[in-house]
Amino acid sequence: QVQLVESGGGLVQPGGSLRLSCAASGIAFRIYDMGWYRQEAPGKQRELVAEITSKRSTNYADSVKGRFTISRDNAKNTMYLQMSSLKPEDTAVYYCNAQNDRISVGYWGQGTEVTVSS
Fold first, then answer.
1. Are 60 and 71 in contact, with CB atoms under 8 Å apart?
2. Per-residue pLDDT for 83 more than 90?
3. Residue 6 β-bridge partners
């Protein structure tokens, strides 16, 4: 059974930092491309925040470049998102995604909520 479990969300003041984690089980984590997405409100489109491939290439949304850092630890089957200089517009539910295009499969976590507010 595949599970992606996000953690680390919460309430933080503008300018603050948070680190999100995504712990994966049931997949060969090291061969999956991983990504963080966020959804500001129900019904709004889920948008890519950052992604890291199995070869550790990274890509970021323009809105988070220079503030967020994505990383992965294959030994722990875990992906991270270090978020700094947080802004109110970063408020959203953040979702973990695992993708393997070679075998056409993808999985989502249940999401973790991040609220940036004073």
1. no
2. yes
3. 22
